[in-house]
Amino acid sequence: MEDRKRKKYPNLNHGRQHNQKMKPYLIMQYLLKYTDENRPINADNLAEILKEDYGIYAERRSIYRDIEEINKAIIMLEQECTIEEASRILEDDEYNNEKLILKNKYGFYARPRDYEENDIRLLAECVYSAKFLSQSQSKALADIVCTLVNERQAEKIKHDVLLVDRVRTNNAEVLNNILTINEAISKEIDGKKHIPEKISFKYLKHSISDMKKQVERRHGDTYITSPFALIINDGNYYLVAFDDKKEKLINYRVDRMKNVQRIGEKRNGEKEFFNLNLKSYTQRVFSMYGGEEKRITLKFITPLLDAIVDRFGTKDVQYSKSDDRHFTVTAKVEVSDQFFGWILGFGKKVQIVSPPEVRQEFAAYLDKIREMY
Q: What span, in angstroms and rounded, lies between the C-alpha atoms of 268 and 245?
């Protein structure tokens, strides 16, 4: 091994080399990336790694000095103290947790990160579950999240968080779309005052003639709308925007938007949006397709209570026991075919109680379906 390394680094010797200044940084990065309290590394093994991987010769004593200087620098930065004060802190065992690099009888290791492994696992799972991200974007973002833990923990998280073959977007513009929309909505950009403005974009849809790619709606016409908010619902990203022609708020799937641009024209719809309770709006707009808002009462079997609370929440919603096997929920809902489709998915486990006109609309909806069979 020594001979091989000397061929690779012909000037390797015990004298001072040109890359010695990199040694403390490399030691710190190695310890952060690969060690924890259960996987420390001793000075001899660190020296071997420096020699084998980087062509840097290091004595044990120099590694001890480097680790002390690393800890001193971190304390100075985190405590905003002088080098003398940092030295005194290092000498006091009571302040052991202030050190970046700790030591036990087996060797050196990086102190526990600011984030628990389970915290990062949860973030990675959220990234993987987002349907508005492509598979490559999900992987890239999860890799970034996993830099907050060490290498062993990162590999375990990536192994455990399975990337399910779910329906995903093929639109690579999504992250840029979100950035542009946020800039259009913002009242300040790069420290300068900004008047929220309209955006233009093309809106996509699937075509049965080629399911691998989406085509532009309205024969490629450009959409112009006033953006107000971005909402995540059921793993998808939606833009809530005001449509001048229809004079109402409309929802757009961000992953179906392309060529999103700010157009420098002041947005409209301020009154309509700010009179809106965004939280209740998202609860009542099923599948993000709007309809006429009505207060309805539904009757469900008792085992569905948790699922219905997940859908409606508990604020401004009334729940009551109907009998030993059923409960009712009364809430504001935007009644549409999408809402009826959601109801239909429960089969005989749900009944629309009121108002009568919604019961009649649902019956008519069922009749239209029956006519097809």
A: 11
